[in-house]
Each structure stands twice: as structure tokens, then as C-alpha cells.
Amino acid sequence: MNKKYVDKLVNILNQEKMDAILVAPSEEMEFLMDHNTHICERFQALFIKNDGTYFYVCNLLTVGEVEAVLGPDVKVYGWFDGDGFIDTVRKAFEENGLIGKTIGVNSTERAFLVLQMAKEIDVKFVNGKPLLEEMRMIKDEEELENLRMAARITDESYEELLEFIKPGMKESDIHKKMNEIFKAKGADEGFTMVCSGPNSSYPHYNDDQRVIQEKDVIVLDWGCKYNNMCADMSRTVFIGGITEEERKIYEIVYESQEAGVKAAVNGAYIPDVDIASREIIQKAGYGDYFFTRLGHGIGYSVHEAPDIKTTNKRNLEPGMVFSIEPGIYIAGKVGMRIEDIVAVTENGNEVLNKASREIKIICPK
Fold first, then answer.
1. Residue 39 pLDDT grade (very low, low, confident, very high; cuts 50, 70, 90)
2. 3-135: what CATH class?
3. Rounded CA gap, 145 and 339, in Å?
4. Which residues contact 148 (CB under 8 A, 6 or more apart)?
5. Residue 350 has what DSSP assignment?
6. Is 109 a residue whose pLDDT tops 80?
7. Which residues of 101-115 are buried (b: 16+ CB within 10 A; e: fewer)?
8. For 136, how many CA atoms within 13 A lie in the half-sphere containing its CB?
């Protein structure tokens, strides 16, 4: 178990007057246990109590594997398919003093399982996701250094991609090249998205089969993983030239991104950071086309806390790491985004990505 973060989580449980938290198979489980398990219809979860102890409930088919991970001093409660899981969970709760208590639930547990337990066992389930986010929101120096390295490798891949991209190839060819570069530089595959032509107007475009054309706008959104820490960067490039309208949109996004980065300093109120960036796009007349949050936290996951948006009513603190990524997306026509990762420091902030944000026009050879 990741003792440092279990201890942080226990402190948060006590601050929030919560008795325990349920963590189903997920990135969160892997983060806490250094182990993850296949998620299926059978109930299983790690339970961490506010006194620092923990136990596990799972089907008999997983008991041996979990016991090997957690060791002999941690109780693993196994249940048989023919009996169902409720009686075993009730027994675990009785032995651990959780009957009548409040238990947080992580983001991957299925509602039908939680509802069944709540119906048949005297416990109160509440949303535990914010506690798990709080647990890992502030990065330590080792984590920050791994984030810097992931960002640097992603930066370095940009120039190679500019040399590689040309009309006639598919978006998937660029995806493949991104991951080849990461592997060559000693990093793991991470997040890759290539949005060309009209697909650039879809912020979370989910395909890769379009063929790159001359005069395309391409939004590249990608990042490797290094020592389990993620990078995420977006750049917008132009094939064979840029129109006046495209240049205008790009310059607006560029100015908006600069303003967001400048505002994202220690102590800043998160809604003000979003507003500083967003109002530039609004004043330019493109406010309706910037319909996403300004940014998201990053670390062990590409998307984690803190969200940089007007409804997140808190102030930035040293060790928070997140993206600043304004964009303009005109559906079915064109989209542009510039994204860098920012770490809050005692004296302001550190922009982890160093790759050029200037207009890049790829001339077909």
C-alpha cells in the first residue's frame, strides 16, 4: 500500500467526518495499492477506515491474488458466486464497526451494487470522489520532477511530428508516430488525439481514419507517461498555408492562453483564472465557441483535480498541476487549441511545456 497517501486519505476522512471509503478497481485503486484488478459484474472493493486500517471484499476467484498483494495482516473477505456478496459485505462491516456508518464511494463503483448494499445493509453511502481527488491534488517534488520529464519528452516529440506530418497520411499514422517517439525516448504510451480538417472542431474527437489534406488545420493533443506521471499538450498546426480567418482565431486563442497562464499563480481564485482567459475570447466575439472548462488537473491520470473552471470555488496552492487550454470550436468547420501544463509554485507558477506556440505551417514536400 502507498502509505504516504493512505495516511493523507485517512486525515481527509476524519476532517470530513466520514467513517470509511470504498475503492473499486480503478486508477485510484492502483494508486493506493500498487495493484489493480479486472472489474466485472462481481462486487469487489478495498475499504479504508478513518483509523488507518483497511480490508478487502471480493469474489473467491480473486482472493488469492489480493492476499498476495496485501499480505497476511490484512483481512480479505471472499464470497462465493452461489451465495451472492451481500452476506459477506455485512459480515465485513460488522467485524469492522461500519454498521450504521457513513462510507464514501469512488468514481468507478457501479450504482446497482451500491444500491443493493444500501437497501440491505444499514450504512450510508456518499460521494467519495472529492476525497480521493484531494488526496493526490498536491504533488511532491518527486512527482513534479516526473511531470517535468514527461512534459519535456512530449515537447521534444513536437519537432519530430512537424517533420513527419504530410498530406495523404491518416490521422492514425500520426497517432502511431507519437507513440513510437515516446518509446524511443524511454517513456510509456499516453494520451494521443489527432483532429484534422473539420474534425479539429470536435474537442474530444474519437476517431483516427481521416486522410490529411492540403490546407487542413490539425489539432494535436498528446502526452506520454513517465514513471506513471502524465503529460498533456495541445498544438494547432496548418498544412500548406493559413487563411486570414484562421490566423485571427489562432491569435485570439494564443492571447487567451497567455492570459490564463499569467493568472494561474499561487493564491489565485480559480474562477478568476478561467475568466481571465475566457473574457478574451468572449470580447473577440467567439465566446459561444469556447464551451469547455479552461483546464484540468493532471498527475497519475491525464484528467484529475483541480478543474480550472468558474464553479471550482477554491484558490490555487503550491503543488497543484493542471492544464491551461482555451479553444475555439466552430462545429463541422474548424477548431483550434493551445494547451500547456502549469505547476503552481510558492512564487507564482512554472510552465512545464516549452514547445513553441507560434504558428506552424507545414509545407508539403
1. confident
2. alpha beta
3. 19
4. 352
5. E
6. yes
7. bbbbbbeebeeebbe
8. 24
Gap between the terminal Cα atoms of the chain: 54
Grid coordinates standing for 220?
A: 494535436
pLDDT reported for residue 40? 86
Cβ atoms of 318 and 178 within 8 Å: the answer is no
pLDDT tens track for 14-29: 999 999 999 999 989 9
Would you call 12 helix, strand, or coil by DSSP?
helix
> What does pLDDT average to over the chain?
96
Q: Which CATH architecture has domain 141-362?
A: Alpha-Beta Complex (3.90)
pLDDT of residue 365: 67
Rg value, the chain, Cα: 23
Domain boundaries, given as residue ranges, for the chain = 3-135, 141-362
Report how many helices (DSSP H) and strands (DSSP E) the chain contains, helices first. 10, 18
Strand, helix or coil at 258? helix
Q: Residue for cell digits 513553441?
A: 356
Task: Yes or no: say if 210 and 249 are a contact pair by the CB < 8 Å rule.
Answer: no
Q: Who contacts 76 (Cβ-Cβ below 8 Å, separation ≥6)?
A: 55, 56, 57, 58, 63, 66, 67, 70
- The Cα 247–Cα 130 span in angstroms is 40
How far is it, in rounded angstroms, from Cα 128 to Cα 287?
34
3 state DSSP class of 340? strand
Rounded to whole angstroms, how far apart are CA atoms 13 and 49? 8
Phi-psi region of 214 (alpha: psi -120 to 50; beta: other; left: phi over 0): beta
User: pLDDT of 238-264, one tens digit each?
Assistant: 999 999 999 999 999 999 999 999 999
State the greatest distance between any 2 C-alpha atoms of the chain, in Å, as a whole number.
71
Q: How far apart are CA 240 and CA 13, in angstroms?
A: 56
Note whether 62 and 37 are within 8 A (CB).
yes
Q: Is the pLDDT of residue 38 over 90?
A: no
Half-sphere exposure of 33 (CA within 13 A, CB side): 26
Query: How many angstroms separate the CA atoms of 294 and 210, rounded?
Result: 27
State the cell numbers at 41.
459484474
Query: Does 89 score more than 70 pLDDT?
Result: yes
